[in-house]
Amino acid sequence: MRNPPLGLYIHIPWCVQKCPYCDFNSHGLKSELPEQEYTSHLLDDLRQDAALVNGREITTIFIGGGTPSLFSASGIGNLLKGVKQIVNVAKNAEITLEANPGTVEANRFDGYAEAGVNRISMGIQSFQDTHLQALGRIHDSQQAQYAIALANAAPLNSFNIDLMHGLPAQTLANALEDLQTGLAHNPAHLSWYQLTIEPNTPFYSRPPELPDDDILWDIQAKGHALLEQAGYRQYEVSGYSKPGFECQHNLNYWRFGDYLGIGCGAHGKITQVQDNTVTRTVKVKHPRGYMDIARPYLDTSTLVAEDDLAFEFFMNRFRLVEPCPKHTFEDYTGTILTNAQREELAKAVNTGLLTEDEKNWQVTNTGRRYLNTLLSAFV
Ligand SMILES: C[S@@+](CC[C@H](N)C(=O)[O-])C[C@H]1O[C@@H](n2cnc3c(N)ncnc32)[C@H](O)[C@@H]1O
Ligand code: SF4
Question: Is residue 39 left, alpha or beta, with left meaning phi > 0 and alpha meaning psi from -120 to 50?
Answer without folding.
Answer: alpha
